[in-house]
Description:
By secondary structure, the chain is mainly α. Among the domains are: about 1-65 and about 115-200, no CATH class; about 65-110, no CATH class. It has 11 helices and 4 strands, in the order H-H-H-E-E-H-H-H-H-H-H-E-E-H-H. It has helices spanning about 1-10, 25-60, 65-70, 105-110, 120-140, 150-170, 175-195, 200, 210-215, 240-270, 285-295, and strands spanning about 80-85, 90-95, 230, 235-240. Residues about 10-20, about 225-245, about 275, about 280-285 and about 290-295 have low confidence and may be disordered.
Amino acid sequence: FCCVELWVVRPFHCGRGRGGHSLKQRQIDYVKLIFHTVFLFILGIAVCFLITEVGKRTIGRLRPYYLTVCNPIWTNLNCTKTVQTASGSISIPQYIMDHYCNSSVSDKDLQEAKLSFPSGHSSYSTYAFIFLFVYFEARLVCPSIQFLKPFLQCLCVAVAFFTCLSRVTDYKHHATDVIGGSLIGFCIAVFTAVRVGTYLWTFSVYCETDEETEKDRLPKDERITIPGVETKPSGGLRSNEQDQTITERERHSNRSNYDNVISMHTQQQQRPISNNVKPTVGQRMTPRQGYDEANV
């Protein structure tokens, strides 16, 4: 995560927010994002470890190399049993529940040979590389490095898949053990990175162009306006979205001022009419004026 943030995101000018954050604020965001991402990664690993170990200790399964490690005394094992039928006695295979391993085998190796399901290596590797897959999708959004993101994501999937295959070829796990461990790691990685780790998208990466970068390095009096980006009085950059927001505010302000002027002008035109002067045609007569004239 540190390599991505410091060697990939920053060198390609991808840390600048649309609000024109300063370099110090961007550095603080980098550190916060790295610590938060590492915390999420460790949290997911802990959950993945807990679920995998609970499955191993409660369900378990004999590994493919169990007989080699156990090396039981074959002469003491009876793999068949005799069953009496109408046609006579027949021998059928039986499942051996109790057996004794060689005394030279340590208890640690013997216990390890019984923990095949689910595969721990498959679970951890799938979680780690799927988490990186989502992390790259959230952070590597600059057009100048778009070729790098799919390459790294394909590399993550390939390494996780190769790790799962190696557990089968080394006779450490059965194929179903690997599939079960991969599903556990995949589900936890997606939940951690997408549902819990929405913080990855909070600090959205804005791709700063080379012209904007060079403009920030120039003195204020030598800066040239870039199409689509204006310079604020403070020296920062202002995007078109901010210009639209300011324009809307000015429009609403001008509209309210215009309405106030119209209302004041209308009030000035409505002057009171004296009792001695009769209203002409087209003028409005108040009820008080009509009452006075009727009395006259």
